[in-house]
Amino acid sequence: MTDRMQRFCVKDYLTRLFQLRSWSICTPPHRLPAYASAVLGPGGLLVISTPYHGFLKNLVLSIFNAWDAHLTALWCGGHIKFWSRKTLTTLLTENGFHVSQFHGVGRVPYLWKSMVVVARKR
Q1: How many CB atoms lie within 10 A of CB 83?
Q2: Nearest CA to 122 among 49, 45, 31, 47?
Q3: Per-residue pLDDT averaged across 44-63, rounded?
């Protein structure tokens, strides 16, 4: 691969990365797999990082009456949707992806701050 081709590929990659990073703020999330499917070939990888919300984490938030602080609308930015492993896997599976990896990130297991999902286009 020539230097010029490498620069083009890096620029194209960064453009797509920026588009995906901005996606959750501007676009309904069910459109992400359709977009990823259009730009990825068969076997292509989609890596998603999003805040984690599973049963145990939600239960702890409820026990400590922490939902209002957790979901506060009184700060700039934030996330529109809250995902669990099950809901994100369902969204990706329904759109032709196979989830091959799941990683909880930050804090202790099942109270993770975030999750990373790796899915392969079928």
Answers
A1: 21
A2: 45
A3: 89
Domain residues of the chain, as ranges? 3-121
pLDDT for 18 equals: 47
Please state, in angstroms and rounded to a whole number, the distance separating the CA atoms of residues 46 and 57.
Answer: 25
d(Cα 39, Cα 16) in Å, to the nearest integer?
A: 9
**Higher pLDDT pick, 23 / 98:** 98
Nearest CA to 50 out of 94, 97, 98, 92 is that of 92
pLDDT tens digit sequence for 87-121: 899 999 999 999 999 999 988 999 998 899 999 99
Instruction: Supply 99's token pair.
Output: 């989830």
Global pTM reads 0.70
The single-letter code of the amino acid at 1 is M
Helix, strand, or coil here: 99? Answer: strand
Count CB neighbours of 117 within 10 A: 21
Write the burial class of residue 50 (CB in 10 Å: 0-12 exposed, 13-18 middle, 19+ buried).
middle
Torsion of CA 32, 38, 41, 43, to 10 degrees: 30
Taking the mean position of all CA atoms in its chain, how far away is CA 10?
21
